[in-house]
Design a protein that fits this description.
The chain is globular and about 50 Å long. About 40% of the residues lie in helices and about 25% in strands. With about 230 residues, it is α+β, with helices and mostly antiparallel strands. The protein has a single domain, classed as Gcn5-related N-acetyltransferase (GNAT) (Aminopeptidase, 3-Layer(aba) Sandwich), CATH 3.40.630.30. Strands 1, 2, 3, 4, 5, 6, 7 and 8 form an eight-stranded mixed β-sheet that branches. A hairpin with a 2-residue loop joins β6 and β7.
């Protein structure tokens, strides 16, 4: 079993560390990038998405000028152990609305209602919620009250209502992460280890993967709207 804790201020560092480990372990599942671990660029995105979530965790409580809230599921038998988390962004000027940023559940805790419980907790606070997900996960979120609304990048856009909020949702500017010294160092290491040709091939594989995901999401949504 598990218990849920709702944070509107930064949570303890041991909790943060476990959340970031969940991000690293579940990168392909929780990111719009969804790059497979077999791609040589995987480590770059693993660092970048992890650091992005780190910045959002620091922003819980409004210290970065945006609204960020967090729900953490803890193992009832081991209250120090994180079994899942849900990071979401309340919408300015619309007290009922929010957008899901990241959610993950540890492998040992799946199919036990953790994700559903965290989502229900969030919807109890913000009933007008929006998220994006891979085509394969649409049925899961439909069972939680979301409906297909369109396509956003490589994923299907879903909402608990048949319209998006008019309010503004604050987002961190994370573009600079990909041009940071750390990312450049990772790229240089991979280049030295695998060679230029292999890295170019990895970039082509990534781009083809993005295109395939985008077409798949578009075809799915068009099929729903037909």
């Amino acid at each position: 079993m598990y218990t849920l804790t709702h944070y509107t201020s930064p949570c303890p560092e041991p909790i943060n560390s476990q959340i970031l480990q969940l991000v690293v372990d579940n990168l392909t599942d929780i990111s719009m990038v969804a790059i497979p671990a077999s791609n040589l660029l995987y480590n770059i995105y693993q660092y970048a998405i992890g650091y992005e979530v780190h910045l959002y965790l620091e922003a819980v409580g409004g210290s970065k000028g945006i609204a960020v809230e967090l729900i953490v599921a803890l193992d009832e038998q081991d209250p120090e152990k994180v079994s899942g988390f849900l990071l979401y962004l309340p919408v300015k000027d619309d007290p009922q609305a929010c957008g899901v940023a990241y959610m993950a559940v540890g492998a040992a805790y799946r199919r036990k209602g953790v994700a559903r419980a965290m989502m229900q907790d969030m919807l109890g606070r913000y009933p007008h919620a929006e998220l994006t997900c891979a085509v394969e996960k649409v049925p899961v979120f439909e069972s939680m009250g979301f409906q297909v609304r369109g396509v956003r990048g490589t994923q299907v856009l879903m909402n608990t209502r048949d319209y998006s909020t008019d309010g503004l949702m604050g987002l961190l500017d994370v573009a600079s992460i990909y041009s940071s010294l750390e990312v450049r160092q990772i790229h240089t290491y991979l280049l030295q280890k695998h060679g230029k040709r292999a890295m170019i091939d990895a970039e082509k594989q990534r781009d083809r993967h993005f295109d395939q995901m985008t077409r798949k999401a578009q075809a799915f949504v068009q099929g729903r709207q037909a």
